[in-house]
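Internal QA ticket QA-208
Title: Verify multi-chain structure generation after dependency bump
Assignee: T.L.

Test input:
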Amino acid sequence: MQLFATQGYNATGLDAVLKQAAVPKGSFYHFFGSKEEFGLAVIEEFSGRFLARLDVLLSDPTLTPLDRLRGFLERGEAQLAQHQCTVGCLIGDLGQELAANNERLRARLDEIMRSWRGRFAACIQEAQQAGELSAAFDPEVMAGFILSGWEGAVLTAKVMKSTQPVRDFLATLFATVLTKP
Amino acid sequence: MQLFATQGYNATGLDAVLKQAAVPKGSFYHFFGSKEEFGLAVIEEFSGRFLARLDVLLSDPTLTPLDRLRGFLERGEAQLAQHQCTVGCLIGDLGQELAANNERLRARLDEIMRSWRGRFAACIQEAQQAGELSAAFDPEVMAGFILSGWEGAVLTAKVMKSTQPVRDFLATLFATVLTKP
DNA sequence: ACCAAACTAGACCGATCGGTCTACTTTGTT
DNA sequence: AACAAAGTAGACCGATCGGTCTAGTTTGGT
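Actual output:
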């Protein structure tokens, strides 16, 4: 997971994975049919953990829906800073790299991103019902907007080696889009 | 440029480039010192063309500043659709893939993204001066927000194989952030 | 104690990677 | 016409890629 997240899929050789995990090749191919299948398993593992944490944070009853969203995104910013902007979002990274080359992985990444968007949308709808947000916008569209913006901000932060893009994204988002009606 | 944009840098072997260009290896290495140097030249070529077009579109005197920005982004959406969402933004793609692996290319991509952000910022400032936009926001921050959002929307569109993320991004952007004061 | 299944271990494979090398052809200058 | 420089052509190089194969070891059931 770490190697894929930092170097990407193609740039990470199996030998590097095996060395880091201290696992011989025979064992690897006993459990995984191919690098692609292993990649899928890594994605699955990451996605599972991530979605679980997302569900916890977005359903925290001590916060308003909008503050849950803000808290989640700010945690992401902190993590990015913690890794000196070298590690962004594994799903976005692999998506960018593999969307055109590997249909199987692309399809799975697509599903995962849609599930995230769905969670965002639910939280936005709650915010609308709580009167925190104008009900004029389609929650699903708004959720897609936030997801895209987030992925792009993380990408830009990696390129610029600075959390500034993420900070600017969050500041602008909550000052303009996610503002009380 | 086409191969890098569709397959990425690492997944594109030199042999593929040489075959497509019908150029023997000897000629290639007569003009380019390495694949990295070639990659830099490709980036340079793309960046030059792109920035030229950006300058034309963002200084069109027949449109208001905001409409120039909208026109530019909508042209991008049309191009994405034209390629069935297989080709996004070369700079963003390479940035995502190489930011952690190749400092030289990363640094150049960083510069290019900053130059784009600068162009956006100038246009936004014009819009503010023309009264099209609230002057309450820092143009540079707002420009970073748009650039991040755009890159993310294109990334998501590639993964989802649909222009919907880009359409949702633009709709939300011009309905909430880039709205008249 | 025995044995089959599960698993470990890494040498090895052909393909492909980026890059080098030498021999040859074309071009521009005088 | 002569010649040096520029450019062409692709065989070839070691390294590394993902993946295979065989031989050995550990494990769990009986």
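Spot checks passed. DSSP finds nine helices and no strands in chain B.
Status: verified.
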